Amino acid sequence: MSVIQKIRDKYAVWIIVLICLAIVSFLLQDVFFGRTGMGQSNVVGKVNGVELTNTDYQRRIEFTTEQMRQRMPGQTFDEEAQQYFREEAWNAFLRENIMTEQYEALGITVTDAEVVDAFSANNPHPLVRQQFANRETGEFDPSVIQQVNQAAKQDPNMRAQLLQFDQAIVEYQQNLKYYSLINKGIYYPKWLAKQQQEDAAKVANIGYVQVPYSTIADSTIKPSDAELNKYIQDNKGMFEVPEGRKLEYVSFDVIPTSTDSAAALADIQKLKAEMDTTPDVAQFVKLNSEYNQYDGYVSRSAIQVPNKDSIIDLPKGATFGPYLDGNMLVYAKMIDRKTMADTVKLRQVLIFAQQGADSIAKKRADSVEAVIRGGGDIAAIATAISQDPNAKQTGGEVTLAPHTDMPAELAEVKTFAFDGTTGAVKTVKLPIGYAVVKIMEQKNVGPALKIAYLGKRVDASSASSNDMLTAANEFASANTNRDKFEKAIQQKGLNKKIAENIQPMDFVLPGLGSAREIVNWAYSAKKNDVSRVFSLEDRFVVAVLTSIREKGTAPLDEVRPTVEAEVRKQKKADQIIAKIGTPANLDAAAKATNQPVLTAEGLNFSSSYAPALNFEPRVIGAAFNKAWGPAKVSAPIQGQAGVFVIHVNNYTESGIGNLDYGQQSQAFEGAMQQLVQQQLFQSVLKKNSNVKDNRAEFFRSN
After folding, report:
1. Using one digit for the tens of pLDDT, what is the confidence trace for 58-103?
2. Which phi-psi region, left, alpha or beta, contains residue 528 (left: φ > 0; alpha: ψ -120 to 50)?
3. Which residues contact 255 (CB under 8 A, 6 or more apart)?
4. pLDDT score, position 7
5. Full domain range(s) for residue 496
6. Are 381 and 527 in the same domain?
């Protein structure tokens, strides 16, 4: 899973909280450090007249990044993650100011008394409950608030953080009040409930003639550009687009040559000779291998490497290789074999030691171990007294696999889990106290292997890189316009690729990775310009700018296939409708079009889909048109897949009973409230605000 997906999945709520916390942080920083020039040259954007300086924007980015580092310790954030943080910082600025304007217009305020009440021990605010929890139990603890307040009296930084937290509560409550007001305006009237009930109460059974659009060849319908542009203008809402660029490029990839491979082979063979004589293979591999590996036992079934069958059957001490794994030359050496489970389920009771009271914790752990050895239910004990915050939900249960990554401090727990036997109990010393562990179940006991992988990357040499750079420079200098660019690609048989919908603040491009230089060039070049050579991580790129799209309505060139399909369908429908005319019955429509009379049953007005028809909302709606009904055949209907003529054979009861109005109202209003919560800001408030985004200008040299 990518870093970005992890952030979205695991920390979405935290990001919202961090946005709230950030607001006063920037105000405080301005007070302490001041703002650098307020001139236009330092303004990266505006919303409804409120400016965001580059200084403040960088602070927001740094704040968001630092908070995510704290939430994901040890995680490396690549350029894609950094791009995500830039957007989060920008969106935080927009939300802060747009929503503040809304609060002021509606008179929404949060009093000091409300903030004080948020810290009430009897009914603490959700943010307070999260922030001021006992470290050992994970539960809200009012005494923690007192400790923090005492510490803040001596620490200016902590006082500033408390001010930030107060402001976060204010923002949270303002947002809550705002959406509460909106939710009160969502209403499900009884007349609508009655109408929907009637719509769902009966179904129509119809006969129909369908003339598919495919009966007319596409080649016979050639819409003009004027017709296509008219369709775009008539349907502008479908073709709203942001500013963007499109380019085509060729990539001169730096690939290792046979000489490079031979050099890497010689290097790894020397290392292999040393590995064969070293007494500590694991340490040697750790220091010298470039292969990402796990230093432990792995079940045979969990090993997934090239040449697996040859490797897992190696005798102890034997070596296989070298073999190729991606861009690595690898030797695999069998270190050890043993029999062990591939999964262990255990339960544990955590007992934390207070400072200077380790002996007390040890006595308590020994007592717990004695009770468990005497037949005590460890799940019940863990639920009752374990200081693991999750124990109340899990009964202290933990599942481990041999390759489960665990901190070094817990290595003894893992060793016991796999070396012990089912039912065994042990007390393990931890840096924070003790864990009383019982092995509950060991699954799939079988062979487990410890293998050392000595790997050496096969990298391109500087000579190989220089050869590719020379080739790219020759291509760029010889093909200085788009026509030459295209012709050279065809003559040389090069692989042309496309990068489209490039946004001004993009730093990463699909297929190219980190490519800010190319984005900067695309926004300064003219259409059909050919670029200089761009040097990326493992390739050299030459591009031609093929499209410049301004914000607004998409130009025909960018949406031609879609628009042609729709206009062509409309023109086909006109021809088919003219051919059908005004049929007296279905047989007449069938005869005029040489199509059969078909039937469809169970059409319901409340649904746009029917099994016999697929998605045909116009046809289904027409089946309930009182002007036609069972009395007469319909006029031709332009549908999704063709033109239809229908006749209602009869209406029958659907069998859906009367629904409770209260339940209907609750479901409808709940769904609408959720929709408003999700889309109001982005689709309405932000769209109707005056937003000026100049950020890209400040990253032109990056």
Report:
1. 999 998 888 788 777 667 788 888 889 999 999 999 999 999 999 9
2. left
3. 460, 464, 468
4. 47
5. 243-255+461-550
6. no
